[in-house]
Amino acid sequence: MDRNSQRGLRLVRRARRSGRTRMDALRVTVVLLWLWVVPARVSAGDCTADMELGKRIALGNETVATCPGFDRDGDGRVSIDELLAAGRAPEAQIPPAAALTSTAPAILVGSISGAPGQQVSFSVTLSTGGAIVAGTQNDISFDPNSIPVAAIANGKPDCHVNPDINKNGTSFAFRPPGCSGSGCTGMRALVLALDNIDPIPDGSVLYTCNVAVAPGAVGGDYPLTISGVILSSPQGVRVDGATGTNGSVTVSAGTASCAGDCNDDGLVTLGDVVTVINLFLRKEPISSCSAADVNQDGRVSIGEIVRTVNVLLGNLDCTVPPPDTCGNGIVDTGEDCDDGGTCIGGSNAGTACTAENQCQGDGVCTDGANASRACTFASDCPGGSCRHCVPQGGDGCAANCTSESAVPLNLVPGVVDQNGISVKSGTSGAVVHGDALTIPLPLTGAEAVVVGKPRNGSIPMVVPADSVQFPQIDVSGLACSCVRGVAAKTCGGTTFTKTGELAKDCTPGYSNNGDAAHDGPCPANLPCTFIHGAGNSAAGALDCDGRAGINLLVTQDDVDGSCNPGPCSSPPTRTTSGQGGPGSGVLLTSTSIGTAVGACTASFCTDADAFSVRGVIGVLPLTTGAAQGEFSNANGIPDDTVCECATGDPACSASLCIQPVTVQGAQLTCDNLSNGLVSGATLVGAFTFPNVPIVGDSVVTTVFVVE
């Protein structure tokens, strides 16, 4: 029993002992009720008077259960508007609202530059859009391995509120709650005062944060991605329509001014060459000689070794080329053109851009093992980079900001081998490898590849969808197949999600019951966007100095038999390996394969075909290296693996597999591609195809040999 209750009971006893009148007893009873009820009412709100507790809940350092009174809307969390509502004095004077402007209220994260090992600061600014704002809340995510927000001695973010805005209650915390070191991938900021509800002036810097650029950070742009933006009025009412604008940290390639000069002494020595070779072999981290990574792609290529050797021999100038600025909308030195880029992967995917911070949310891995996969940080893209504003070709200006030209590609017609289960070496075709049946599909036809010029060691390529002309394919009179190039679109514009699954298709006609006039449905935060650029069915690059990860392997498991009827419970797994020599390349293609039962007719495989007979869109990487595929426990049969079997069978026990089903490509030099000399070039691919009609779970290999 609390103190007031005890006082009340003492009053009752005294009234009884003194023999007071009924009216006196009534008065005592009223006092008793006041002593019990009013304190109870105050107790329920006592914790909401503790604003420090409220801030800890809003920052995620305490649970809402600690003081449910802060959670006014009952959504299980506490935000800045609820804090201000709890802390506002009833007699506080609320300033009149200003006229709203056409600009939505927003929190803007600044963009900065720094070198590896350097500490730099970014500012966060408020644009009120005419609203009266007394408090703000937002989260910022960052790459914890390359550009972490620095921590102070107590483990909190090294961020500081702007003293001019008089918000002495401002607090910061790392996210997720309880994290430390590289486990912290973001931070939360609450900007408020404990003693006033004064409006924050439009254009004010809210706070600044220090970033500790990692000594081994690879040169490039790293996003500071804002989310969870909440603005509150002095009354504790949330301001509608508040948004955020991302910032970025541009990390330079370091202080070295000479390609291969690992100790920055102005000379390239034999020891530097040995270090560069070790970097190529991945025996040392790239941070041990950032000057060797001339094109700042996070790895050392054969071409960069050759460059270092030539600098040692005096055959090349020592200077490292400046960072690439292609995509900024300005024709810089070394560029023929620059029409900017397109936001890919985030909530404004598909919009034009000229800088990383103009794109909201995630980006896309532009190279490496996770190429075309959605990403948030550079660490999501081993061997590549996470870009948000991506230059794309096909409009006359290539993805490397050079002028484009079209090169016709005519395929060597496919010929079925004498066994009737494959296509002859040196000819074009696809083969469907099932566990009991193998079906060869010889290919003929042509397409055009639109190429840029060599720049920074590579030549970008795209294939216009309307240039893909493959005649219908007769499958032994039993069926007729039609292969089409498709200008595919997905929700967000990436091929794969961050977890490696195929992104949701939203291509008109294919994804929305044949409606070719409209995009298919997508979440609001992932707009429908072209994968390869408008009108293109493929995009990629030929690397003049060699390429890491040139060999492709796709595997899948149907251990539970879920692929029939589908969907499969286990998605395919894709890995890359190997180092390709000069003239290695990868082309990511989007095609659909439609099939009609019976012999081919003139009415099939035309533009008049209904989308229901065009098949689904498949995204297939083609490589000049090796492409392999393997399907384990095919059709739910234990230890039944589609592979290259020692017994010569199409499927066997995993212990009898020599290797996955394999096809081999062939390189093409950059000089020959630039001059339109493409004869002999061979691109190959492999993918798993669950539940193929008649055949079942299969591996499909493709070979395109150019005449």
Secondary-structure blueprint:
Layout: H1 3-18, H2 22-46, H3 51-58, H4 80-87, E1 106-109, E2 111-114, E3 119-127, E4 135-141, E5 159-161, E6 171-175, E7 186-191, E8 205-212, E9 220-232, E10 243-245, E11 247-251, H5 270-280, H6 302-313, E12 341-343, E13 352-353, E14 363-365, E15 374-375, E16 386-387, E17 389-390, E18 405-410, E19 429-433, E20 438-442, E21 446-451, E22 458-464, E23 473-475, E24 479-485, E25 489-491, E26 528-530, E27 536-543, E28 547-557, E29 573-580, E30 584-597, E31 617-623, E32 626-632, E33 641-642, E34 644-645, E35 651-652, E36 657-659, E37 661-664, H7 670-674, E38 682-692, E39 696-705
Parallel strand pairs: 1-10, 2-11, 28-32
Antiparallel strand pairs: 1-3, 3-8, 4-7, 4-9, 5-8, 6-7, 9-11, 12-13, 12-17, 14-15, 14-16, 18-21, 19-20, 19-39, 21-22, 22-27, 23-24, 24-30, 25-26, 27-30, 28-29, 30-31, 32-37, 33-35, 34-36, 38-39
Helix pairs in contact: 1-2, 3-4, 5-6
Overall mean pLDDT: 85
Count of DSSP H/I helices: 7
Question: What form results from the Cα inertia axes?
Answer: globular
Contiguous runs where pLDDT drops below 50 for at least 5 residues: 1-45, 89-102
Structural class: mainly beta
User: What's the number of extended β-strand segments?
Assistant: 39
Describe the sheet with the most strands: 8 strands, antiparallel
Radius of gyration, in Å, reads: 32 Å
**Helix residue percentage:** 10-25%
Strand content: 25-35%
Distance from first to last alpha carbon = 95 Å
